[in-house]
Amino acid sequence: MIGLVLAAGAGRRLRPYTDTLPKALVPVGPEGKEGETTVLDLTLGNFAEIGLTEVAIVVGYRKEAVYERKEALEERYGLKLTLIDNDKAEEWNNAYSLWCARDAIKHSVILANGDTVHPVSVEKTLLAARGNGQKIILALDTVKQLADEEMKVVVDPAKGVQKITKLMDPAEATGEYIGVTLIEGDAAADLADALKTTFERDPDLYYEDGYQELVNRGFKIDVAPIGDVKWVEIDNHDDLAKGRDIACQY
């Protein structure tokens, strides 16, 4: 198993940081200064803590900043990093970005979005949920109060994920997908095909729309509730402030 990070996004709502950096390299240290801990640092630290030794990172917007830090990150976390170029990072949404990593997924991966600050307990929860034939397991927050922006999920206890979308009445949802997934290697071909169908239909779609495509085809996607843990998806400066507060606690 290897780690996989989607770090190709521009994060325009985080300017001026993202004038020169991809979203995953925005500092989340208490002062928010250049060179301090980033979302990517936190994720790589989590991967190292659970014993992974290799990580693939999909890069695109301002990818040179990740290339410049590659050796230092490898040394700091004891990981071998492979960078995968997304040639449409500034044009298309992340269904295509995850498809770019289709070969990496064959090794079985824990996927983490490059803008999600979360504790290592999330990865540990996903690993603990393995072993009963599941092929894809989503980390699910069933505690948080949901609103319109969240990636909401409806789960049937017997059949797994039935619906995953932001476009849902929050009252219908079982919980929120937090942007971390365990994907077994034997799901790679099915997922790649669903993602390709998704971005060919509309390049502006999310990889979660690819998950929905899989579900529509009869593929079972499971979930693992993460419990009452603090995490945040960093989309804007308010989220960044929350991310800095959370990052100090882990």
TrEMBL record:
Cited SUPFAM superfamilies: Nucleotide-diphospho-sugar transferases
Swiss-Prot/TrEMBL keywords: Nucleotidyltransferase, Transferase
InterPro entries, per the entry: GlmU-like (IPR050065), NTP_transferase_dom (IPR005835), Nucleotide-diphossugar_trans (IPR029044)
GO molecular function: nucleotidyltransferase activity
Domain Nucleotidyl transferase: start-end pairs: 3-151
Name assigned to this protein: Phosphocholine cytidylyltransferase family protein
